[in-house]
C-alpha cells in the first residue's frame, strides 16, 4: 500500500511538473523568438515572459526536492540541498505572484480610461514603470526569501529517516512570524492588486458596453472583443491563483497529512504554474497562434505518405 501511494505521488508530481515546464518554456521561447525577429518585446509580453520564466524555474527546483523528499534521500544530500531548493522555489514562486499582479495592473492601465491625473501619468510611463517594478520585485523577493534558509535544519535526534527528511523546519516563534510576514507581502498583497485591477477592468467594460449598446452605430468587432478577452484571461489567472494559494494555506492547517503535507503544497504550486501557462497561451493571441502552428506542423510531419 505504501509503495502504491509512493508511485502515485511520483506519477502525479512528474506529470504536473512536465506540463508546467513544457508550457512555461514554450512561452519564454516564443517571446524570445519574437524579440529576436523584431528587436522589440512589448511591455505585456515582457511581464508574461518573466511570469513564465519564474514558473518554469520554480518547477526546475521542484524536481530534485520532490525526489529527495519523497524517497527520503536527505541523509545522502544533507540539509544544504533543502536550503538551496526551498530558497529558490520560494524566490521564484513569490516572484511569480508579483508578476501576475503586475500583469493585471498593466492591462488595467491599458484598458481603463479615466481622467485621474496619477492614472494618466502612469499610462504614459507604463513601459518604464513596468521595468522598474520587475527589478524591485526580484530584489524584494530575494530579500524576503533569503531568511528561509535559517529555519532549515535536519534533526539529528530523530531515528526515523522518513521523519528526519520530512520535518526539517525548525518550529519556533520566529519562524511563525516570518511565515506570516512572507505570506502578507508575497501572497495577500499581490492578490489585492490583482482583485482591484480586475474589478476596475470589469467595471469599465460593463459601463462601456452599456454606452455602446445605446449607440446603434457602435463598432462591435475586435475593438471590443480584445479587452473582453483580456478580462477573461486575468480573471482566470486570479481564480487559479486563489484556488492554489487557498489550497496551500488550508493544507498548512491540516494535521492529518503530516509529513505528506509538503508534497501537496509543492504540487499546488506546480498546478498553478501549469494552469497559468495554459491560460496565458489560450488568452494571448500571438502565443495561441504560435502554439497552433507548432501543433499543426507536428501533425503534418506525422501524417503518413500515401503511395
UniProtKB/TrEMBL annotation:
The chain crosses the membrane at residues 6-33, 91-109, 129-152, 181-206, 227-249, 261-282. The lineage of its organism: Eukaryota, Metazoa, Chordata, Craniata, Vertebrata. One of its GO terms (molecular function) is bitter taste receptor activity. Pfam families: TAS2R. Signal peptide: none annotated. It is a multi-pass membrane protein. The keyword Chaperone does not apply. Keywords: G-protein coupled receptor, Membrane, Receptor, Sensory transduction, Taste, Transducer, Transmembrane, Transmembrane helix. The gene is LOC102352282. Residues 23-244 form the G-protein coupled receptors family 1 profile domain. It is found in: Membrane. InterPro entries: GPCR_Rhodpsn_7TM, TAS2R. GO terms for cellular component: membrane. Belongs to the G-protein coupled receptor T2R family. This is Taste receptor type 2. Its main location: membrane.
Amino acid at each position: 500500500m505504501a509503495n502504491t501511494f509512493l508511485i502515485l505521488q511520483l506519477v502525479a508530481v512528474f506529470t504536473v511538473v512536465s506540463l508546467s515546464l513544457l508550457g512555461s518554456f514554450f512561452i519564454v521561447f516564443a517571446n524570445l523568438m519574437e524579440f529576436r525577429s523584431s528587436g522589440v518585446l512589448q511591455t505585456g509580453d515582457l511581464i508574461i515572459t518573466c511570469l513564465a520564466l519564474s514558473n518554469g524555474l520554480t518547477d526546475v527546483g521542484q524536481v530534485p526536492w520532490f525526489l529527495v523528499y519523497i524517497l527520503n534521500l536527505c541523509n545522502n544530500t544533507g540539509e544544504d540541498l533543502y536550503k538551496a531548493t526551498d530558497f529558490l522555489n520560494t524566490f521564484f514562486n513569490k516572484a511569480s505572484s508579483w508578476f501576475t499582479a503586475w500583469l493585471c495592473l498593466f492591462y488595467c492601465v491599458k484598458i481603463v480610461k479615466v481622467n485621474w491625473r496619477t492614472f494618466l501619468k502612469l499610462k504614459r510611463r507604463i513601459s518604464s514603470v513596468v521595468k522598474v517594478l520587475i527589478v524591485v520585485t526580484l530584489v524584494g523577493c530575494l530579500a524576503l526569501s533569503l531568511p528561509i534558509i535559517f529555519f532549515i535544519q535536519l534533526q539529528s535526534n530523530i531515528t526515523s529517516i522518513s521523519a528526519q527528511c520530512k520535518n526539517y523546519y525548525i518550529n519556533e516563534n520566529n519562524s511563525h512570524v516570518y511565515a506570516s510576514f512572507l505570506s502578507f507581502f508575497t501572497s495577500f498583497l499581490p492578490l489585492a492588486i490583482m482583485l482591484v485591477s480586475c474589478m476596475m477592468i470589469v467595471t469599465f467594460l460593463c459601463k462601456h458596453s452599456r454606452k455602446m449598446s445605446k449607440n446603434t452605430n457602435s463598432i462591435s468587432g475586435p475593438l471590443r472583443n480584445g479587452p473582453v478577452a483580456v478580462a477573461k484571461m486575468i480573471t482566470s489567472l486570479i481564480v487559479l491563483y486563489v484556488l492554489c494559494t487557498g489550497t496551500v494555506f488550508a493544507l498548512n492547517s491540516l494535521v492529518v497529512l503530516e509529513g505528506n503535507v509538503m508534497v501537496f503544497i509543492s504540487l499546488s504550486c506546480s498546478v498553478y504554474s501549469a494552469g497559468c501557462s495554459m491560460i496565458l497561451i489560450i488568452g494571448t493571441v500571438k502565443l495561441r497562434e504560435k502554439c497552433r502552428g507548432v501543433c499543426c506542423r507536428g501533425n503534418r510531419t506525422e501524417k503518413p505518405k500515401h503511395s
